[in-house]
Each structure stands twice: as structure tokens, then as C-alpha cells.
Specification:
Strand content: 5-15%
Helix content: over 70%
Radius of gyration: 20 Å
Number of strands: 2
Order of helices and strands: HHHHHHHHHHHHHHEEH
Number of domains: 1
Strand order of the largest sheet: 1-2
Shape: globular
Distance between the termini: 13 Å
């Protein structure tokens, strides 16, 4: 049985992964075997939960939302954000290629463990794998759209961004860049512009509730196809995590703050096999693969909610 400490550590990994372009908390949840339980717990934050809260039946509410599990995950994410996430931000700034190499190896081997959960490979399962890969690669190759501050478009950005944050293989911040509103959102946060933050928050809330219900339903009725689709998302995300690439930067303006450069797209190239850094990257890829092997070997999957 998975202990609270094991779930907490998986939360720590989810929080740290969010600072790596192309790696989402959803990816870590999927490869560590807690994704479906996490989605079901989020889905449980529904009208029934509100009624239990208003009636002050907190014990029933805690059980309804799988509170012990969510608390362990949430605490892990918070601890990671204030500790390990800062370390990964430093590593990305100072040793981006080496950091990416480690995560490339980790994600590459994790594909095997995720795909192994598929019990039957049918034409529809294979098609789901291909579709997931194409979507993830397509998003990585898209050129950023123009900024749009209309209520509906900002609301839509909230829906899609929050969905991508919990969807394996997709980065919420990168999706906002593709949709053209990353700078708009940063500026709204710094200036506390409610004209942008309110529709964005509304979109995030609606997207989180609806998406968790959709994913939970799909998992229940099409488990193999869903796992294959998510495996495709993670496989396609390797395009962004590939260590040998040059980032194409875009300068964004922020209200009352200095301009900030963000990644708009990438230019990929093959490694120089005569370079020592190439072999260091290869070693870090192996280290990443070993880390996911040890995680699978010693950390049992979270049990289903009783």
C-alpha cells in the first residue's frame, strides 16, 4: 500500500516538473501511477462537496474528495515550489542542456512503464497513440498567435491552460505563449488587472472541473485508448525536451516591470559526437532513466480510492 510519504514525494516531483519546459505535473502523475486517482479526486470537488461543506459534515467531505490523498499531493507540490523548483530553475538557467538530458532519459524510459499498463493493443489504441504524438508535436511547432484580450478568448485561454497543466506532456505556460496571451497574463498578474484575471480564473475553474469529469469518464470507458493517447502526448513532448536545440526568444512587455524574454519556438539540431558535453548528456540521460526505474521498482502505485 502506498504510504502518505510516497504520495507526498510524488507531489514534490510534480511541483518540480512544472518548471521544465515540456514536462507537466500531469506527466509525473501519469508515470508514477497516481494520475487517474488524482483526476477522480479533483472531479469529486463538485456540488456534493459543496453541500457537505455547507452542512458542516467535514468528515464525509474529507472522504468524498479523497482528502488525505489530495493533502499529501498538495503539500508535496507546495514544498517543491519553495525548495526544489528553485533548484531546477537555477539548473535550467545555468545548465539547460544537461538538465534537459536528464529529463529526456527519465521521460523516455517512463514511456515504457506507461505503455505497459495498456492491456490490449488494438487499431484504436494504436491510432490514439499516433494522434497524441501528433498533437503534442504540432503544439511545439506552432507559431505564437497574436495577443487577444477579449473576455471570451481570455476565458478560453484559462480553460485550455489549466487543462494542459494537468494533461501529461503539455506545458500550460507554453500553451499560453502559443495562444499569444502569455504576456497579457503576466502583465495582468503584476498589475492585478481584474479585466483579465477574472475571465482567466473563471476559465481555469470551468476547465478544471469539466476536464477532470471528461478524463475520468474516458478513463472509465476507454482505459487503453486513454493511456495510449497520453503516452502519445508524453512521446510528442520529447520534441521540446530534446537537449540539442536553440530557443527562439520573444520579448514581452509587462506592466510596471522590465521586459521579459520567453521561448516562442525552437530550432533543433543533432549532437556533436566528438564533444565531451554530448557524452555528459548521454550519461545524464542514463541517470534519468535509472531514476524512473528505481521509482517504479521501489514506489508502489497509489491504491484506488475505496
Amino acid at each position: 500500500m502506498t504510504t502518505d510519504l510516497s504520495v507526498f514525494l510524488k507531489g514534490v516531483a510534480m511541483g518540480a516538473a512544472n518548471v521544465i519546459p515540456g514536462v507537466s505535473g500531469g506527466t509525473i502523475a501519469l508515470i508514477t501511477g497516481i494520475y487517474e486517482r488524482l483526476i477522480n479526486a479533483i472531479k469529486a470537488c463538485d456540488l456534493t462537496a459543496i453541500k457537505l461543506f455547507l452542512s458542516r459534515d467535514f468528515k464525509a467531505l474529507w472522504q468524498h474528495i479523497d482528502g488525505r490523498f489530495l493533502a499529501a499531493i498538495g503539500l508535496g507540490v507546495i514544498v517543491s515550489i519553495v525548495t526544489l523548483a528553485k533548484l531546477f530553475e537555477f539548473l535550467l538557467e545555468s545548465h539547460e542542456r544537461y538538465t534537459m538530458a536528464f529529463f529526456f532519459g527519465l521521460i523516455l524510459l517512463s514511456l515504457y512503464y506507461v505503455a505497459k499498463r495498456i492491456t490490449h493493443w488494438s487499431p484504436s489504441v494504436i491510432a490514439s497513440l499516433i494522434v497524441g504524438s501528433v498533437i503534442a508535436i504540432g503544439i511545439a511547432l506552432l507559431a505564437p498567435a497574436n495577443e487577444n484580450n477579449s473576455f471570451f478568448y481570455v476565458f478560453l485561454c484559462g480553460v485550455i491552460a489549466i487543462s494542459s497543466m494537468i494533461l501529461p506532456g503539455l506545458s500550460g505556460s507554453f500553451v499560453l505563449i502559443i495562444m499569444g496571451n502569455y504576456a497579457l497574463v503576466l502583465g495582468a498578474i503584476s498589475s492585478f488587472s481584474l479585466d483579465i484575471l477574472l475571465p482567466l480564473a473563471l476559465g481555469c475553474a470551468v476547465g478544471l472541473v469539466l476536464f477532470s469529469h471528461v478524463i475520468a469518464w474516458i478513463f472509465k470507458h476507454f482505459e487503453n485508448q486513454t493511456l495510449a493517447l497520453m503516452t502519445g502526448f508524453v512521446l510528442g513532448s520529447l520534441v521540446v525536451i530534446w537537449p540539442w536545440k536553440t530557443a527562439v526568444m520573444q520579448t514581452i512587455q509587462r506592466a510596471e516591470k522590465p521586459p521579459k524574454e520567453v521561448v516562442a519556438s525552437y530550432q533543433w539540431f543533432m549532437p556533436d559526437m566528438a564533444s565531451a558535453s554530448t557524452w555528459i548528456c548521454a550519461g545524464l540521460m542514463v541517470a534519468g532513466a535509472i531514476s524512473i526505474y528505481l521509482m517504479e521498482r521501489f514506489a508502489a502505485d497509489a491504491p484506488a480510492k475505496s
